[in-house]
């Protein structure tokens, strides 16, 4: 059974950093990976994507330069490094496995999410 388990969320002050991790339970290189987030009362939005071998990444323009996605295929883990965090980054963050891209419909498997709260 395919499982994705996120970790690393928590409470951080504005300007701080967090690194989220997502561990997978299968042959990791079978899938491209992505991170999404959903804030209260808002739709889930794309945060970052990475191809199965890590050679290609993409981000929405609003997050470029602050967020960075990476993966360690030997550890079956994908990471999201978040720097210069802002209160508007507060959301539940989800990792997902599927086909490369920003459309969440391209992703077949989802983690349970991890809460990130940024205080002002």
Spatial separation of the terminal alpha carbons: 40 Å
Proportion of residues in extended strands: over 45%
Supply Rg.
13 Å
Q: Give the structural class.
A: mainly beta
Mass-distribution shape: globular
- Characterize the biggest β-sheet: 7 strands, mixed
**Averaged pLDDT, please?**
95
Give an account of the 3D structure.
Strands 2, 4, 5, 6, 9, 10 and 11 form a seven-stranded mixed beta sheet that branches. This protein has strands at residues 4-7, 10-13, 18-24, 32-38, 45-50, 57-58, 67-72, 77-82, 91-98, 107-110, 114-119. The chain has no helices and eleven strands. It is globular and about 40 Å long. It is mainly β and 120 residues long.
Question: What does this entry show, briefly?
Answer:
The chain is mainly β and 120 residues long. 0% of the residues lie in helices and 50% in strands. Strand 7 and strand 8 form a beta hairpin.
Essential attributes:
mainly beta, 120 residues, 11 strands, 0% helix
């Amino acid at each position: 059974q395919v499982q994705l388990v996120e970790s690393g969320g928590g409470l951080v002050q504005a300007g701080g950093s967090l690194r989220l991790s997502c561990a997978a339970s299968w042959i990791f290189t079978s899938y491209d990976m992505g991170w999404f987030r959903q804030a209260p009362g808002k739709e889930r939005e794309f945060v970052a994507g990475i191809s199965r071998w890590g050679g290609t990444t993409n981000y929405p323009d609003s997050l470029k330069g602050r967020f960075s996605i990476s993966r360690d295929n030997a550890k079956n883990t994908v990471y999201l490094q978040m720097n210069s965090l802002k209160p508007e980054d507060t959301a539940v963050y989800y990792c997902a496995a599927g086909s490369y891209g920003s459309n969440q419909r391209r992703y077949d498997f989802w983690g349970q999410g991890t809460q990130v709260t940024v205080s002002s």
